[in-house]
Amino acid sequence: VPAKCGVGMVNAAICTQMLSDLDKPEAIAFSGAVGGLERNMAVGAWDQFIQNSKTLRRLQRKFSALATEMEGAAVAYTCGLLGIPFVIIRGISDGASVTADTHFKANLHTV
Predict the structure, then answer these.
(1) Residue 28 in contact with residue 18, Cβ under 8 Å?
(2) Residue 15 CB coordination number (10 Å)
(3) Is there a contact between 85 and 20 (Cβ–Cβ < 8 Å)?
(4) 20 to 30 A Cα–Cα from 62, which one of 2, 25, 50, 80?
(5) DSSP label of 70
(6) What is the rounded average pLDDT for all residues in the chain?
């Protein structure tokens, strides 16, 4: 059953719980876009759309983050609590910078 959860971890967790309650899925496949912080693109969870270089550098320095991801972490956590197998598939939509919003919108159809 396809569903659109919207942006953010709370929306993703609520949507996952609702799918579980209403449709009793055997498994959940979740897909969407993430923001890239580096060209090599390892992903870490972060509940914020990154658009400034100060935050980008802080994430890189503190966590060695190469990409940010919001909703997948919430889906994974909720599925884990519910005992539902899951897979998270993400595509890089933008480089977290002042142009992130523009790049996100322009690239979303290809992700």
Answers:
(1) no
(2) 20
(3) no
(4) 80
(5) S
(6) 79
